[in-house]
Amino acid sequence: MKATSITDAEKGYVTTNQVIRGVLDYIGAGSFEEAARLYSHCQEDIGYLLISKTPRERAVQTNLAKMFFLAKDFEKAAQILEGMGESRRAAELYERTDQYDQAAEMWAREGELERAARNYEKSGRWQTAADLYTQVQNFERAAFCFEKLVNHFLAGKYYFQLKRFQKSMDLLQKVREDEDHYLDAAVMIGNILAMHGYLDMAVAKYKVVTRTVPLAKGSLSVYYNLAQLLERKGEVFEAMKMFKETAGVDPDYRDVSARIRELEKRMAERVEISEPAGEEVLEVIEDLEPVEEVEAAAASRPGVMAGQARIVSVMEGFEFLKNTSLFDRLSLSEMKQLYNITNTRQCPPGELVIEQDQPGQALFIVKRGQVIVQRVEGDKISVLVELGPGAHVGEMSLVDQAPTSARVVAGPEGAELFEITRDQFESLIASDDKIAVKVFRVFAETFCQRLRRTTAELSALKAGAGSR
Question: pLDDT tens digits, residue range 372-389?
C-alpha cells in the first residue's frame, strides 16, 4: 500500500492506515516535522490507534513521542513518556494539558512532593494535596487545602502557626463543641486574644470552655491558662481558686504549686496587683500552655451556652485594598479571598522591592509612603516615576516570568506595601475561575492603557524629530 504524503492528506480523505503508514515512514526517515504535520492535518483523532500500531522498541517510542510533541499533542506524548518511565518529562507535559491528576502522580514518582501537591490541589483533590503539603512542611498551602475540605481545626491550626491570626480565629470559631478538637481550638483562640491584648475577651472565651469542659487531666491547660489570665488582670482571688483547682488534679502540673505560693505571699503582704501594661501582656502568651500539649477532652460535653457571642476579626487595611482600581470589579466575598492571600510588608527607606532584569515574584500595592521606579543602565540610575498610596507595581509578574524592566525601591520615608506572590495568586485563580476572569480583564485593560500611552509618546517623539 502506498504511504500517504502531506500532499495526499491535504486533498480531502485518506484512510487511517495510509496516515499511520505515512507518519511511521516519516519518523523512520527522521522527518519528524513532516510526520507531525501529516498527523495534525487529520481532523479525527487517530493518536491512540497510532500508538497501538507502533512497535514497542524504546527508540521508536521515543521518536513517536517527539512527533506528538511537535504536533502539540502533549497528552499523548506524555502517555508514551510515562510508559517509558520518563516520569519528569511526562509530568511537565501533563501540566501543559491541564491533566493535573496524572501530572501529580508523575511528580510523586519523582519524589517531587511539593509539585505533586500543587497539581493535586489544582485537580481539586484537597485531602491528598493537604497531606503532601504537610509532609513537606508547606503549612500555608496545607492550611488552604484543609480550609477547602471544611476541616476548620487543621486549617485554623496551620494559620495559627503561620501567625495569620485573623484567618485562624475565623476558622477556629467554626469548630463545634461536639468535635474532637474543640478544646484545642478554644486554647488557640484564647492565645490569639491574649497575644493581642484582649484579656477580657480571652478570659470570657476560657470561661465558656470551662463551663462546658470539666476539669480533668485532659483539660488542665485550659484551667491553668485561665488562672494566668485572671492573675494578669488583677483578679487574684479567682486566679488563686483556679490554680488550686488545677493543683487538685495534678499538683506537679507545670509550675502551678509555685504560682500558688507566690500568690499567697503577695496576698499576705497586701500587694496590690494591677492589670499589666501592653508589653507585659505578651508574657501571657509566652506562659500559656502550647497548643500541641493540649490533650483530647472528654468524649461527652454539655453544649455551649445558647446565644454565645462569636468573636469577629477586623481585616486591617481591607477597605484600602478593596478600593484599589485593580480589584474594583470583585465582589465582597471574592475580595475577602484575595485579602486572605495578601501579605503586609514594611520597607525601610531605600529597601529593594523589585530588581531590574530579574524574574518578578509578586505584585505590590503601596499602602503608605512611596516607592521609586528606577531604570538602571550600567552605572547610571534614572528615576522614572515616584508612586504613592494606591499605586501598584509588579503586576506583570503574576502573568509571566519574564525579567522585570525596572528597579523599584522604597522612598525616603519608607513604605508599607500589600504583597501578593505569584504562587499565592496562581493558587487562588486555579480555585476560582470567576476571580481569574475579572482580575485578568483588569490587567489587560491596564496593559492596553500603558501601551496606548507609550505609543502616543513615541509618536510625539517621531513628530518632533521630523519637524527639526
Answer: 999 999 889 999 999 999
Arithmetic mean of pLDDT, 261-265: 87
Calpha distance 158→151 (Å, rounded)? 11
If DSSP codes are grouped into helix, strand and coil, which group holds residue 42? Answer: coil
Q: Which of 333, 329, 363, 345 is nearest to 439 (CA)?
A: 329
Cβ(136)–Cβ(144) under 8 Å? no
Residue intervals in the chain for CATH 1.25.40: 180-293
Encode 362-418 in three state secondary structure.
Answer: EEEEEEEEEEEEEEEECCEEEEEEEECCCCEECHHHHCCCCECCCEEEEEEEEEEEE
Joined grid coordinates for residue 121 = 490541589
195 Cβ partners below 8 Å, 6+ apart? 165, 281, 282, 284, 285
pLDDT band at 273 (very low <50, low <70, confident <90, very high): very low
Question: In the chain, what is the straight-line distance between the N-terminal and C-terminal CA atoms, in Å?
Answer: 72
Residue range(s) occupied by CATH 2.60.120.10 in the chain: 318-438
pLDDT digits (tens, 9 = 90+) for 104-156: 999 999 999 999 999 999 888 999 999 999 999 999 899 989 999 999 999 99
For domain 180-293, give the fold.
1.25.40
CATH of domain 318-438: 2.60.120.10
